[in-house]
């Protein structure tokens, strides 16, 4: 993944069962995924064992990324499912081949 000075990501995680969906924002998606996988981020993702990256979007402005995160958090689950499927029809872990 190529890094620019101003890169931000809105991302969605699920667990191995796919029965929960978490939406977050970060300026370093690889580092954030490493923290999620190691359980270093307490709260929803550690409680429900969300460590499978199924969707992400990239932004150059943090304000746009935060606005998108808030928008997605207000979406119905079925709308989020359609969005994930548009990028990742098999719900694979998009970060599996990353060196993290």
From TrEMBL:
Residues 6-82 form the GIY-YIG domain. Pfam families: GIY-YIG. It comes from the Bacteria. InterPro entries: GIY-YIG_endonuc, GIY-YIG_endonuc_sf, UPF0213_domain. Belongs to the UPF0213 family. This is GIY-YIG nuclease family protein. It comes from Parabacteroides acidifaciens.
């Amino acid at each position: 993944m190529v890094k620019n000075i101003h890169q931000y990501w809105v991302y969605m995680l699920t667990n191995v069962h796919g029965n929960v969906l978490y939406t977050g924002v970060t300026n370093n998606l690889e580092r954030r995924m490493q923290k999620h996988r190691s359980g270093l981020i307490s709260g929803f993702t550690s409680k429900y064992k969300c460590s499978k990256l199924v969707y992400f979007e990239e932004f150059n402005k943090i304000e746009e990324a935060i606005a998108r995160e808030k928008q997605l958090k207000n979406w119905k689950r079925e709308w989020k499912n359609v969005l994930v499927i548009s990028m990742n029809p098999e719900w694979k872990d998009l970060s599996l081949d990353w060196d993290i």
